[in-house]
């Protein structure tokens, strides 16, 4: 009976693989049109059309390899889980579940539908097959019952072409990987010109690699009828390289503009900045919204923020401060993808202070923490910035109080809830301390006549955090001001400092 069932299943699967050719990865353009476009990219007749031809060719490649044109996918998700030591099995299994949940959250962010999912446990990746025979059979059995599935997502960051090829042959469906998925999200969420350029740039290594892999596959398969020829690939690789150069140039222009703005900000000297960093969805934008009152619409989506934005807030001593919202981190994506976004984190490396927001309610919070720290270390942050970093445990409202004690790492975390407004005053106090220390600002008491030149200068150029009338002479006030060394020197050179503490 069992044998019969198995035989029937095998027949269904064999039929499915034959009856459903893998969806072709192609766009609306005919090969002839694409070749014309390519010729233009490689040998432009005039400068005016060159940029346009580059962009159009890039779109062709994206349609071809990233299948953007197909819109919404109906997915079956496979989360591989490799364990080398079977005694670690239990804890790895819960880690695998967290990874699967994160992958499902990534898919939800794109509003794609998940028709089914599975954890594929095995001792290690198996070369060209990636998945073991048993796991492949299990997925095939599940797919046989789900005819509406349009693609399989194998949530490993980067499939090799042969792995993709084997799995597509086995499943009879296109197979996507994590890099692909994250690129799609970046595409959807990029708003500014810089973010859009960064996304386009991070696509190029992926597209180039897919081209090389296709080329290698064609070389291996010398008897295939549909041969593209060496020139086909060479032309495309050269065009991609040209495109890469063009985007780098456009990006460096945008970066120069940003550097000018940053210099202006530091020239004014009155606006210390705090970079808010952390794992994606940890609550960075929510925290900045709570601290500044700006309406930022935080979303329960991964990579909701892809543009670095700056928001003005105020410290308890009334000094203005800028909070810099940054792109979130995530595990298991290739460094190339992070690298193209590292420039958006330049603002973080140049900040006076960093707040690291951790989602303490997340089951994977420890792993997320080490992932963020590893990425920050790779950014070459100044040692002092790393040491002064404030770490907050956000979403404390979701954590039962008895669990909090074990999570707060011996008091190293400041418990907060950005959405409930818990712990924010304490946090702002710590931010103030950190800023004063990092920027060499200090409190100075100045006695001056109300409405005098000194009085007006201080109100105009620095922060006056307290005003007291002088009990000995009601015409005078004692101002408690926050001043940097430079502001102090400017003030001294214009006025006599009456009293200082
Ligand atoms: N319960 C609870 N939810 C929170 C808290 N802080 C943020 N959230 C929710 O967590 C989700 C993500 O918040 P965001 O502020 O967008 O997170 P982010 O770190 O900016 O995310 P990315 O920009 O995608 O990296 C949203 O649905 C928030 O409402 C909190 O303190 N408690
Ligand atoms: Mg955000």
Automatic annotation (TrEMBL):
GO terms for cellular component: cytoplasm. One of its GO terms (molecular function) is metal ion binding. The keyword Nucleotide-binding applies. The keyword Metal-binding applies. Coiled coil: none annotated. It holds the Pfam family MMR_HSR1. Keywords: GTP-binding, Magnesium, Metal-binding, Nucleotide-binding. InterPro entries: G_HFLX_dom, GTP-bd, GTP-bd_M, GTPase_HflX, GTPase_HflX_N, GTPase_HflX_N_sf, P-loop_NTPase. Residues 272-439 form the Hflx-type G domain. NCBIfam families: GTP_HflX (TIGR03156). This is Hflx-type G domain-containing protein. The lineage of its organism: Eukaryota, Metazoa, Ecdysozoa, Arthropoda, Crustacea.
């Amino acid at each position: 009976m069992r044998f019969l069932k198995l035989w029937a299943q095998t027949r269904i699967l064999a039929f499915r693989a034959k009856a459903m050719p893998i969806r072709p990865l192609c766009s609306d353009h005919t090969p002839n049109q694409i070749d014309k476009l390519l010729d233009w990219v490689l040998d432009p007749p005039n400068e005016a059309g060159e940029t346009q031809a580059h962009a159009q060719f890039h779109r062709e490649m994206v349609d071809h390899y990233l299948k953007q044109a197909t819109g919404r996918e109906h997915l079956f998700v496979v989360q591989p889980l490799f364990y080398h030591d079977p005694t670690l099995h239990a804890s790895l299994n819960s880690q695998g579940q967290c990874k699967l949940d994160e992958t499902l959250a990534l898919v939800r962010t794109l509003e794609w539908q998940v028709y089914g999912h599975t954890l594929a446990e095995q001792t290690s990746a198996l070369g060209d097959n990636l998945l073991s025979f048993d796991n492949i059979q299990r997925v095939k059995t599940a797919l046989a019952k789900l005819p509406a599935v349009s693609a399989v997502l194998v949530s490993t960051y980067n499939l090799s072409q042969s792995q993709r090829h084997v799995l597509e042959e086995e499943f009879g469906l296109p197979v996507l990987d994590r890099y692909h998925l994250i690129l799609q999200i970046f595409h959807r969420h990029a708003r500014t010109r810089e973010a859009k350029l960064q996304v386009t740039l991070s696509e190029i290594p992926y597209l180039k690699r897919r081209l090389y892999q296709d080329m290698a596959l064609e070389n291996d398969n010398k008897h295939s009828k549909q041969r593209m020829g060496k020139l086909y690939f060479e032309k495309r690789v050269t065009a991609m390289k040209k495109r890469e150069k063009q985007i780098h140039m456009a990006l460096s222009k945008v970066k120069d503009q940003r550097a000018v703005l940053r210099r202006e900000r530091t020239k004014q000297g009155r606006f210390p900045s705090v970079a808010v960093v952390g794992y994606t969805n940890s609550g960075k934008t929510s925290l900045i919204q709570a601290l500044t009152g700006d309406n930022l619409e935080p979303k329960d989506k991964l990579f909701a923020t892809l543009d670095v934005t700056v928001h003005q807030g105020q410290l308890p001593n009334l000094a203005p401060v800028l909070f810099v919202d940054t792109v979130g981190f995530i595990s298991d994506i290739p460094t190339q993808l992070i690298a193209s976004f590292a420039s958006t984190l330049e603002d973080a490396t140049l900040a006076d202070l960093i707040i690291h927001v951790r989602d303490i309610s997340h089951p994977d919070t420890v792993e997320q923490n080490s992932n963020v720290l590893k990425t920050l270390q790779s950014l070459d942050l100044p040692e002092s910035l790393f040491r002064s970093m404030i770490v907050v445990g956000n979403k404390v409202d979701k954590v039962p109080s008895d669990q909090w004690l074990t999570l707060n790492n011996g008091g190293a975390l400041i418990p907060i809830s950005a959405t409930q407004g818990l712990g924010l005053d304490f946090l702002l106090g710590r931010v103030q301390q950190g800023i004063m220390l990092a920027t060499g600002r200090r409190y100075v008491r100045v006695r001056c006549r109300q409405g005098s030149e000194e009085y007006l200068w201080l109100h105009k150029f620095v922060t006056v955090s307290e005003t007291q009338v002088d009990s000995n002479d009601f015409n005078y006030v004692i101002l408690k001001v926050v001043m940097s060394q430079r502001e102090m020197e400017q003030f001294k050179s214009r006025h006599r400092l009456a009293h200082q503490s």
